[in-house]
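Record Membrane protein DedA, SNARE-associated domain, 199 aa.
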Amino acid sequence: MFDWITGLMADGGAWIIAALMLLENVFPPIPSELIMPLAGFNAARGGTPLWLAILAGGIGSLAGAWFWYWIGRAFGRDRLRWLIARHGRWLTMNLSEFERAEGWFNRHGRAIVFFGRFIPTVRTLISVPAGIEKMPQGQFLFYTAIGSFIWSGGLAVAGYLLEDSYEQVEHWIDPLSTAVVITVVVVYVWRVIRWKPDA
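=>
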């Protein structure tokens, strides 16, 4: 898995990094905790420059968050509730989780839009109530961009610094990256199987 992802990044450069981060936010096949450190590692080995990898990762993450913001804004609360009640199994979300995300946003507003970028699952969910509540688009993009670039940049820098120690971690980094992806898939399937209309 490690070689496959780094190979993709070597072939597609910044475009692949942005696309993977976009997908991670829309429907997480590979988590950012794996994508961006490998982008940094690839940069250290002469691939896409670190600054460009961070820029691409941040833009991809921002685009994914913006997608969910517009879903919330375009559908509105009632239609989204109907969608979750009808198709929540495949979204692995029930109405209680949707209402919890709304509660986070109503209590913390701009702060959760920013800090949510550092929390798995929340970084995807929180954009929806921001759109429903019609948070000003400029504010949403501003706080999301800051959080996204800090998160993407921190992970990429960690991967960049790891390159010097590659020989020491080479024997476990590939099975670890494979395990992360398998875990994401297994958790998704488990949530689909265990899903109930409401908690």
